[in-house]
Structure formats: C-alpha cells, structure tokens
Amino acid sequence: MDAREFLGLRPTHNPHRWVLPVTSGIATAGRFLFGGCGLAAAIVALEAVSGRPVVWATGQYLSYAMVDDVMDVDVTVATSGHFTTQARVVAHVADREILTVNAALGQRPIAGSGQWDTPPQVPRPEDCPGRTSRWELRDTIMERMDIRLAQGTQWDDLAGQPSAEGRSALWVRVPDLAVSAATLAVLGDYVPFGISQALGRWVRSNSLDNTIRLVRPVATEWVLLDIRVHAVRDGFGHGLVHLWSGDGVLMATASQSAIVRDEAPS
C-alpha cells in the first residue's frame, strides 16, 4: 500500500487539486485529522504535481478537519528550475483553511554524501512493550499502527518521572504501508508525545506546525522515532524527531512546536 491509498487521497479533474475525505482511519481520538496525515497528504499532492521528490516541507496547522469533512488540497507551483521546485499547498474545508504547507522538491547531482548522526541505543522492537494509550484506539489512526515503547515511561507510570535530557523513543510500524516521504511525515508527528515524557506528567499538546526534512527513505519494517524535546515554556513546547530505519539509516528529521495545555490525568 502506498501513502495515497493509506490516506484515501484522491485526484480530481484539476491536476492541481486533490481531495481528502477525513475518515476515522486518519483521525485522532478527538475525531479530527491527525496532523501528520495532513502534512502527508500535502506531500503526496506536491510530489505528484511537480514530478519531483520532497526535500523539505513545513506545515502550519490553522484549524481542525473533522471526521466526515472533505478537505480540498490545492497545489501552487511558485517556481520550478532545472533541479528544484518551490511550491505550496493550501488545504481547506469549504472556505475554512486547515493547513498551509510550503515545500522544496528536487534532486541535484553531487558526489559527496554522508551521515554523521547515530541512532540511540535502545532494545529491538520485539523486546519492547507495546505503548499503552490514554484513549480508546478503535476507529482511529492508532488502530492501524503497532507502537512499542523503546525509551520512556508508560502513561500510568509517568507521574514524577521526567525523561532524561528530554529524550524518549518509539518503534513504530504500519503493516503493509511502504516507506516514503509521506509515510515519514505521518510518523514524524510525535513531539507532543515527547513533551509529556520530558515533563514527567501527562499534558495535552496540539501541534502548531510540523517540518520534515528528507534524507533517505528506505524500505524498513520498523521505524525508530528518536524524540528530543528541547524546551517547554509559557505554554509552548519545541522539539525534534529523528526517524531511523531498523538498521540505522537516518531517513528524515521532523521538528515541531506545540501548544501545551496543563491538564492533570483524569
């Protein structure tokens, strides 16, 4: 399965407009579109329109698309050169803007390459417990994922145990979904999880933005989310997710800021 099929994204007679019916399978327990899926839909549309792979894409979340809404995904190519395209997406439900995405796409011939970062040392996914949830997972995107806690604390044990250096990690797989830029955009939306881990108590966090920078998507069953929360201050949190393949290839990095609401667990 590719990301377009996973999301349910459909082309229209206009090659620059796509439509995304918001179903429970791409939604949160709150019945609104999972932020990573919105960015992923924009990436699929951008790559299809430009014919080039995404290098980076940044999404600003403006409003919520609810289950049973139909979101239009409109692509504008601002400039296209020999190797690089700069483009944007405005995603909206009727006249209500949901998500704005700016992106660069392309590939350039160059001999030099390298990877200088290294993945965290965590147990293999088969040796990690399943991540528990505070919410009912049925009829949500989480029902479609296998998530293992590689570094961090289960929700029920979280109180008073902040993560060391603001770091936590998850192994995630989505059965039958091929790894792509769009797939990694879905999985990169995990700074909010890391914020609670960093604080050592559950708080509700909603993404303001998500930027993904693609390095080298490769085929892998499991993706390791190396979550690094940098700071929480004045009701906002900031952090980074490195997305590693099962054998240690850095596939992408994702950065986010999120609204943090100071709520105690119910």
Strand content: 35-45%
Write down the Rg. 18 Å
Number of helices: 4
Q: Please report the total strand number as a whole number.
A: 13
Q: How helix-rich are the residues, as a percent range?
A: 10-25%
What is the helix/strand order? HEEHEEEEEEHHEEEEE
Question: What is the residue-averaged pLDDT?
Answer: 94
The biggest beta sheet reads: 13 strands, antiparallel
Query: Whole-Å distance between the termini?
Result: 38 Å
The gross shape turns out to be: globular
Low-pLDDT regions: none
| Classification by helices and strands | mainly beta
Counting structural domains, the number is: 2
Could you state the CATH homologous superfamily of the largest domain?
Hotdog Thioesterase
Assign the CATH architecture of the largest domain: Roll
**CATH class assignment of the largest domain:** Alpha Beta
Tell me the CATH topology of the largest domain.
Thiol Ester Dehydrase, Chain A
